[in-house]
Every structure is written in C-alpha cells, then in structure tokens.
Design goal:
The chain is built from four helices and six strands, in the order E-H-E-H-H-E-E-E-E-H. It is 45% helix and 17% strand. The model has no long low-confidence stretch (mean pLDDT 83). It has 196 residues and is of the alpha+beta class. Helix 1 packs across helix 4. Strands 1, 2, 3, 4, 5 and 6 form a six-stranded mixed sheet that branches.
C-alpha cells in the first residue's frame, strides 16, 4: 500500500521522498508505527470509526494517508510543496488557468482528522531552516501534540460526564415534579369525590 501523503511537483519529488523517509525513520526509531490504516481493534479503533463517517470512506475511495500510531491516538502527516501560479503574460487574458509551479519549499502538517481540514500543527521550512534540520524537532513536537490531545480528550470526557450527571439530575427533578403533580391531582380528585 502507498502510505505516503506527499504533494509535490515532479521536480521536487526526490527531495520530498527523502524528507518523508527521514521523518518515518525517526518515528520508527522511537517505536512508533507509520501506517496507511490504523488497527480496527484497540484504543485507536473508535477514533478511526469516527473518521470513517466521511463520505470518502463510505463510497470506498480514500485519500493517501500517512498515519503515525501512538498508543491511544493517531496523527495524520502530510508533506506538501508550496506552489505558486504564474502571472498571465497577457493581463487581459485572466481566465486562462496556468498550472501551479512548485517553489521547492516544503511544509509538514499534522492533524488529528483524516479529512483535509485545518492542520493541528505545521512546520514550514525557510531559507535558513530547511526541513531536513527540523526532523527531530518535528518528532518531539508530535509527542507534545499528542500529549495535549490526551489532556483535551480527558477534559472533554470530564465535561461530558458532568453534562450527563446534570441531565440525569434534571430528569429526576422533572420526573419527581410530575409524580408530585400526579399525586396532588389524584388527591384533589379523591377529595372532590368525598365531598360530593
């Protein structure tokens, strides 16, 4: 299976493959798995099922994925070359579309969503800091990103637990009011019946 989510022009593809291979090697050296599909069982399975609700998963098509598996989370990695569109030679011919031209500058992005949405973190190279020199930093940042996500999940779970407790209390109060209202109504009817 093709597991590399690389978006690069032909001229920059060799470098893109070397960048992704370097990052994958660094991740695997630290005991992480890099895969195209996470396991269907275990702690990651519910997260994957959440994302399988996307239309691409229902109709059988799915994008190329590079997923890093942590013990209880996965992170999608994308390596993308920045592109630019050349300005038309003829200013009056603005409708003519030109192909995008690769800039040779790359950006890694990490996301907790399989869909192409806003990334949770990005690493963009500059003329003084190429991505080759940032690979160890990216690996460390991924660990920090996952730890932050774990804390958020714990917070979300706590908020959900509190919401359910409050919902149960509200239901009990309403149910108790309903029982009291029914009892009072029956007592009133009984009192009216005795008064007749």
């Amino acid at each position: 299976d093709n597991i590399l989510d690389i978006r690069a022009t032909r001229d920059s593809l060799s470098r893109a493959l070397l960048l992704m291979a370097g990052l994958v090697k660094g991740l695997e050296k630290r005991g992480l798995l890099v895969v195209a599909d996470p396991p269907r069982k275990g702690p990651i399975a519910p997260l994957w099922e959440r994302d399988c609700g996307h239309s691409w998963a229902r109709n059988g098509w799915r994008p190329a994925l590079t997923l890093v598996l942590f013990s209880d989370e996965y992170v999608r990695l994308v390596l993308r070359e920045l592109t630019s569109r050349p300005k038309p030679a003829d200013a009056g011919n603005r409708l003519r579309s030109e192909s995008a031209v690769g800039t040779g500058q790359f950006i890694f992005s990490a996301s907790f969503s399989v869909g192409d949405s806003y990334p949770d973190a990005t690493w963009k190279e500059t003329s003084t800091r190429p991505l080759e020199g940032l690979l160890n930093e990216i690996v460390g940042d991924l660990y920090a990103l996952v730890e932050d996500r774990r804390e958020k999940r714990a917070q979300w779970a706590d908020e959900e637990r509190k919401r359910r407790i409050e919902e149960t209390r509200r239901w009990r109060r309403e149910h108790r009011r309903s029982q009291i209202a029914t009892r009072d109504k029956l007592q009133m009817e009984a009192a009216h019946a005795l008064a007749r």
